[in-house]
Specification:
Shape of chain A: globular
Radius of gyration of chain A: 20 Å
Structural class of chain B: alpha/beta
CATH topology of one domain in chain B: FAD/NAD(P)-binding domain
Strand content of chain A: 5-15%
Helix content of chain B: 25-40%
Number of strands of chain B: 21
Order of helices and strands of chain A: EHEEHEHEEHEEHEHEHHHEHH
Largest sheet of chain B: 8 strands, mixed
Bound molecules: flavin-adenine dinucleotide
Distance between the termini of chain B: 28 Å
Oligomer: heterodimer
Number of helices of chain B: 16
Number of strands of chain A: 11
Shape of chain B: globular
CATH superfamily of one domain in chain B: FAD/NAD(P)-binding domain
Radius of gyration of chain B: 24 Å
CATH class of one domain in chain B: Alpha Beta
Distance between the termini of chain A: 40 Å
Structural class of chain A: alpha/beta
Largest interface: A-B, 17 and 17 residues
Amino acid sequence: MPDTVQFAPARVLVVGATGFIGHRLVQALAREPSLLPVAASRRAVPIAGIEAVACDATDPAAMTRALAGIDLAVNCVAGNDAAMVTATRVLCDAARRSGLRRLVHLSSMAVYGDATGLVDERTPATPPLSGYGAAKQETERLVREWEQDGGRAAILRPGCVYGPGSEQWTGRIARLLRAGRLGDLGPDGDGVCNLTFIDDLVAAIITCLTRDEAVGETFNIAMADPPDWNAYLVRFARALGATPINRLSGRQLRLESKLAAPALKLAAIGTRVARLSVRMPDAITPSLAGLMRQDIRLDVNKAAHLLGLGETSLDWGIAASVRWVDGKRGGNTADTLMETRAS
Amino acid sequence: MIGDARRIVRDTVLTAEICVIGGGAAGITLALALRNSGLRVLLLESGGLQEHAPTQALYEGEVEDELLHSPTDKYRQRRFGGSTTIWGGRCVPFDPIDFDARPWIPNSGWPIAYDTVARWYPAANELVEAGAFDYDARTARNGGMQPMIEGFAPQEFDVDRIERFSCPTDFAGRYRHRLERAESIRVLLHANVTKLQAARDGGRISHAEVRTLDGGQFRVQADQFVVATGGLETPRLLLASNDVHADGIGNAHDLLGRTYMCHVAGTLGTLRLNDAKVWHGYDRAEDGTYCRRRIALTEEAQHAHGLGNLVFRLHHPRIPDPAHRTGALSAIYLAKHLISYEYGKRLTGDGPTNARTWLRHVGNLVTDPFGAADFLTHWVRHRTLAARKFPSVIIRPRANLFSLDFHGEQVPLPESRVHLAAATDPFGMPRIRVDWRYSPLDVRTVATGFALLRQEVAESGIGSLSLDPHEADIEAMVRRDGAYGGHHIGTARMGDSEATGVVDGNGRVFGVNNLFLAGSAIFPTSSQANPTLTIVALALRLAAHLQSRATTPVDLTTRPATLVESGA
Ligand SMILES: Cc1cc2nc3c(=O)[nH]c(=O)nc-3n(C[C@H](O)[C@H](O)[C@H](O)COP(=O)(O)OP(=O)(O)OC[C@H]3O[C@@H](n4cnc5c(N)ncnc54)[C@H](O)[C@@H]3O)c2cc1C
């Protein structure tokens, strides 16, 4: 009998509940009759009708408290690389002494490093790995170690998670498109754009929480037939009305990633030191420029076959993205200032 | 992957399933389209990544009338990317009428229907990077493009047809890394194919002979060969491969190298507009492509008056004539020595520059310095520095006078031809000799087209269209610019049968089971349209055909051409 069929709904701890993915997940969980979300974040932020706990994910005692009475957990912790690794270690350790029955851990396609071609879950990483990729790899190792000790987990490796709430792949890209700093990139945008629509990722997480086939497995979660970056940028720009779309030369892009990005980074540090609340322009970092050239395609067959996961069409995803971006421009600036990070 | 033929061990025999000869728009398109087909493709390209004078010199040849046709090593580039390394990027699809057998045009009619090519236009448009396949001014841009001449709605012309512009995309620069990454594709640079060796019975090609300028030589054996070396070099290679087929491969009916067409083109007339609002520049579609309206002779008018296909564009006055009094135009004239041969050619006036003309241009510059300065700033920003380039010089003439650029079909004329010269290149391959001719019908298309437009302008009351006295002889005007450079068409035409064509509707050479041609050489007629978009569309179609052929049992592929039409 599947372990989720029971009388009381299972209590699901979402670690990192105020982040982009965690936030959307908590709301979706609240709509599931058999699941009851518990939103964990550093400061307990009340979300209407949802139980919240304050929990610094890097604090073992706090984590142990948060796990009391919890059946299932999802690790959506973001933050700097070291904190992400620490939080995962703390979570797994605390789970050794709690009654946690299952963990869904969010990793990233960044664990494949510079791999190219069709990449399935068994494909080894191709160096070099970004700091983020190496950190995600370490978190996966910690989760697997916990599994060897008797824990039960599923690991998800999404691509670029876009859609409402995604600062990184929707908000930032929209601003760069509107500023004419991104557009059609020619040869520099020929890489595969492994998009994961936020709600598809949320659906995958919920499926992994409830389906036994997911336990012990790792899944790529992305579009089966992804566009290239140029196509994503051009379609998104058209939907945003950021037209006519600029064609950027390799020279412009190199200036952005080699000169502007480091300068913006320095400026960002400067404003933080000076405690200025200035919104710095987005940077096109070398890693973003590299990603847009990378010919890596996530093989999502396993998720489709084992879990029966489908996907949202790009048109729908982009339309939802545009509504979110436009809504945000309309007022609610709190979201805009949310911390972003590059992969 | 991309390699260097100069590293191939002498006398090696390389093998592939498909051997593509020539890495220009057509060859690169084929390789890209076959990249995931599972077929091993070897692309042999004469040039390297840069221009190289000794390689370019392999294009040298002879020209019958140097006033009518440019030297054969101009207006084409022998290097990876071919002539797309210097092309202008103007993209226009052919019109349905171009495919029809038109009783008033001898040798017209394609063996394939418009739709079989049109299916491939959207993908071709994407490859040439000219945005969406939409050539209608009313829909190419949200809300439609601005009218060219407000209130001008002629009967015999369509003013809603447009041209769109590629970046202009250099196929090698743009797609090189895709080819580098494709494991089933091998591109060899510096590989000159000097001969196609036919098997003893002539029914198939057994191998291609390859030479390098540093003395290397090797062979390539393949199941299928595609020659994509451009409209002049394709007949040269086939004519020069004349040991088994004494008159050259595919030349049993003396069609190879004949019906050589370019376009007739030039600038003509003076359009004086009363006070109608005029927009003769570019609009940008949402996808960023530059779009421009044209004045296209309708299919009905071509039928009614027995003319070839023709378009006009609203143009600034002819640059060499200082009467335009426009500083920017004079600046271009005075800087013509800085402009490449291909783009500077039409800046040459009707005779050598005399001091008087020169002084009048300087005068224009002095009296209109701001016009020239504005133009230069715009040009540097949107052309020199831009990745998607502003396509051409657009200058609002000071006096509200425009002229008309015409670009007309040249009809297939067997006497207009390319053949082998006695002289040879360093590989011992005969050079080409070009004998380009035009037909009285070509002149009549321009003259009647102009007269029709003049009448419509007069009737509409928007102004008047006239010819300068020295322009009265339209034939002289057509001759002035001669064969429009860079479009080399019809030298290995498609036909229903061996009697009317060198290749069949799929591009396969009649009588040779495994030899295909790609490029404008196979177009039976030239249309008003520039050729490259259609070259790319046909190359995509050929790739699909080759792929289906490679997976079809051999006996099927020897059936008549109509039966093996790939459904494309
Ligand atoms: C100045 C200029 C402006 C133009 N503007 C336009 C325009 O605006 N719009 C338009 O539609 N078209 C334009 N064109 C035409 C356009 O460039 C050609 O139609 C197009 O490049 C043809 O592609 P192709 O692949 O058939 O031939 P090519 O581009 O000529 O490529 C042939 C390739 O074959 C290689 N080759 C030749 N011989 C051999 C051999 N023996 N062995 C191996 N390799 C060989 C060459 O090096 C070359 O790379 C222009 C051309 C010029 C010159």
